[in-house]
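BACKBONE STRUCTURE TOKENS:
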Amino acid sequence: MKNFDREEQLKKLHEDRKKATKKKVDEAIKRLTKSSKAINFNSVAKEAGVSKATLYNHSEIKERINFLRNQQEKAFVDSRIKRDDNNQNAIIESLKRRIEKLEKSNKELENENKQLRDKEKEKLADYFAKL
């Protein structure tokens, strides 16, 4: 065997395994993103078929997962705010319609009350006219 360098072979093997792990993690993150699932160390490790320790030991992968996890949390909060705004707008519109309905009803009752007072005045006027 000419020029067999065991140390060089081990380095190459280690680099190949690192690349394969990185590729598995990248594909797992893509699948999780496509299916709108949570991206965190547990889900990525399970999807990629690697240990969480592996994810934590690769600083580049660790930073990426942290970044994506934070992005998802921010998006979740933003969507909650948007949903809350939509709910609030719907409640406001519903209350406006209710106010309009009550104002209309109030106006009708005021008119009815005025008519009854007018009739009562007429009856009183007729009564006093007969005296």
Summary: The helical segments are 6-34, 41-48, 52-57, 59-130. The longest helix spans residues 59-130. The two ends are 141 Å apart (CA to CA). The CA atoms of residues 116 and 122 lie 10 Å apart.
